[in-house]
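Project outcomes to date are best conveyed with an example. Our students and postdoctoral researchers have been running inverse folding experiments weekly, and each run begins with a structure described purely in tokens. The record below, which covers 71 residues, was selected by the lab manager from last quarter's runs and is presented without edits.
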């Protein structure tokens, strides 16, 4: 398991946070989530989900990922 910190643009409120949390919760391999306006910190099982899937899910919710930092 790795930790990913995503910088997300287009988020302005609690509803935006809830939308991002909902789409990430549906992805296999995404564990613990901490979503705030402008960012998401996730525990990720890279054998089940990759950066492209994370970006696609957030894009599908109407937001843009501008940076992903792995640790």
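After processing, the design step wrote out the following sequence:
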């Amino acid at each position: 398991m790795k930790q990913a910190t995503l910088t997300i643009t287009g988020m302005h409120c609690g509803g935006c946070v809830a939308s991002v949390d909902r789409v990430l919760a549906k992805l296999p391999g995404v564990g613990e989530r901490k979503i705030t306006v402008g960012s998401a910190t996730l525990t990720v099982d890279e054998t089940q989900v990759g950066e492209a899937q994370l970006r696609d899910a957030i894009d599908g919710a109407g937001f843009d990922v501008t940076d992903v930092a792995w640790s």
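Strands lie at 2-9, 30-36, 39-44, 64-70. The domain at 2-70 is CATH 3.30.70.100 (Alpha-Beta Plaits). The training component of this project remains on track.
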